[in-house]
Amino acid sequence: MAMPGTEPAPTQAGQAPAAPRKKLLIRTWGCQMNVYDSARMADVLAPLGYAPTEAVEEADMVVLNTCHIRERASEKVFSDLGRLRDTKRERAAGGKETIIAVAGCVAQAEGAEITARAPWVDIVLGPQTYHRLPEMVARASRAAGQVIETDFPAEDKFDHLPEAATPQGPVAFLTVQEGCDKFCSFCVVPYTRGAEFSRPAGAILAEARRLVAQGSREIALLGQNVNAYHGEGPDGRTWTLGRLLRALAEIPGLVRLRYATSHPRDMDDDLIAAHGEVPALMPFLHLPVQSGSDRILRAMNRGHDAALFRGIVERLRRARPDIALSSDFIVGHPGESERDFADTMALVRETGFALAYSFKYSARPGTPAANMHGQVPEAEKDARLQALQALLREQQQDFNAGCVGREVEVLVTGAGRHPGQLAARSPWLQPVHFSAPAGLIGGMARVRLDAAHPNSLSATLLAATSPVAGLLDPVQPVSEHATA
Ligand code: SF4
């Protein structure tokens, strides 16, 4: 990922001089929440003198921020760690220290194995403890042995983090909720991220105001179960996500809001109504359904059936007729028959998705589904996945083609791939490219969508529609995301 730049804190009168500059490399896998966590780890380490680098040979500290959602996640981490052992040795021969830290969900789930198999790793930390990184670095530098922090501390890490120092660009991510209590049969999140926790609304509003002051125009609220949000409001009451979105929409200069990832069980009436009543809330929702079969949804312990999902879609479309939907699907969950899979295909045909992420079921050690009877043969899973993806691809292409000819407002996020071209985002999260002066980056523009390509649209600029602050490139999106 593009690591946001982090400068050491400037020295002020009466303060200790800044630590000598050191280099920090953070590699991030997985969802946007990990991208957000990586930026916050950089903020926490900046006062120690760590500035970002992309070159592993010059990194005084390397953090692997890992994801456990996808297959063979830990194997990939161990092969990266093997290469880092060599780098650490080479740097040590030149008299340079290298601190290696493994963070994120693989660290949380497999901390003991990491320290046993990779004794050159200095720090193993779970997602709830990265506010303690400076102390862990100090302990690791004193050669106090491996430092392992994978508990779920009672204190709220957000209370101990510095204010985000680095502008994120036109599109910013803001974590409002973490963890999950739902225990779907296939998922490690409840074990690696812990129980559901919501940040107080006041802290979120303050962070959002800072992001807007730094030039962000779109904020995506993040949480493993973001629509289960139930944080304390400034009025002392419990705020839901709908209430929080309405308050955020009042911030001057904040043009767009999104949220991910949601669970169908937590789509309450107020949140659905907000889609029709809050113009800043973009007409796009990622709502994972995973399967169209009630039998499999029960086996997955999803706590909802296909009818509930269909009902939500209908109500959302009534509230916001132009809303586009995205979802997650798992094919080949233990016990899935041809008939169950046909139910999934029927739900997809009936709903129509603008975007979707689909995966073959693969067992995660320690999850209930890993020990279930009726594991589906790989060849069967492959065939079902291909059929599902062909249908989803067709729906995505149809959706994009249906946008051609429309005039829409886009957020200009950066330079395009070709000279003189800019990259933007449509309200439906589609990448849009058009020719325009670079001065428009960071502002809103009205464009006419001219042509649909497999994953993007090209357009013609009609007018710039908002003034542009001096903004930076946005955080690059990563390819995978948390599921809910
Ligand atoms: S899939 Fe989503 S809702 Fe289910 S356990 Fe994982 S994070 Fe929680």
Automatic annotation (TrEMBL):
Cofactor: how and how many bound: Binds 2 [4Fe-4S] clusters. One cluster is coordinated with 3 cysteines and an exchangeable S-adenosyl-L-methionine.
Coiled coil: none
Record Gene3D superfamilies: Methylthiotransferase, N-terminal domain, tm_1862 like domain
Chain ranges of the MTTase N-terminal domain: 22-142
EC number(s) from the headed UniProt entry: 2.8.4.3
Residue positions binding [4Fe-4S] cluster 2: 180, 184, 187
TRAM domain sequence ranges: 401-463
Gene Ontology cellular component annotations, sorted alphabetically: cytosol
Catalytic reaction list: 2-thio-N(6)-dimethylallyladenosine(37) in tRNA + S-adenosyl-L-methionine = 2-methylsulfanyl-N(6)-dimethylallyladenosine(37) in tRNA + S-adenosyl-L-homocysteine + H(+); N(6)-dimethylallyladenosine(37) in tRNA + (sulfur carrier)-SH + AH2 + 2 S-adenosyl-L-methionine = 2-methylsulfanyl-N(6)-dimethylallyladenosine(37) in tRNA + (sulfur carrier)-H + 5'-deoxyadenosine + L-methionine + A + S-adenosyl-L-homocysteine + 2 H(+); N(6)-dimethylallyladenosine(37) in tRNA + (sulfur carrier)-SH + AH2 + S-adenosyl-L-methionine = 2-thio-N(6)-dimethylallyladenosine(37) in tRNA + (sulfur carrier)-H + 5'-deoxyadenosine + L-methionine + A + H(+)
Alphabetical keyword list: 4Fe-4S, Cytoplasm, Iron, Iron-sulfur, Metal-binding, S-adenosyl-L-methionine, Transferase, tRNA processing
Amino acids binding [4Fe-4S] cluster 1: 31, 67, 105
Cofactor: [4Fe-4S] cluster
Domain called Radical SAM core: residue spans: 166-398
InterPro entries: Elp3/MiaA/NifB-like_rSAM, Methylthiotransferase, Methylthiotransferase_CS, Methylthiotransferase_N, Methylthiotransferase_N_sf, MiaB_methiolase, rSAM, rSAM_horseshoe
One GO MF term: metal ion binding
Subcellular location: Cytoplasm
Keyword 4Fe-4S found: yes
Subunit structure: Monomer.
Protein family (similarity comment): Belongs to the methylthiotransferase family. MiaB subfamily.
NCBIfam families: miaB-methiolase, MiaB/RimO family radical SAM methylthiotransferase
Role this protein plays: Catalyzes the methylthiolation of N6-(dimethylallyl)adenosine (i(6)A), leading to the formation of 2-methylthio-N6-(dimethylallyl)adenosine (ms(2)i(6)A) at position 37 in tRNAs that read codons beginning with uridine.
Name of the protein this chain belongs to: tRNA-2-methylthio-N(6)-dimethylallyladenosine synthase
Phylogenetic classification of the source organism: Bacteria, Pseudomonadati, Pseudomonadota, Alphaproteobacteria, Acetobacterales
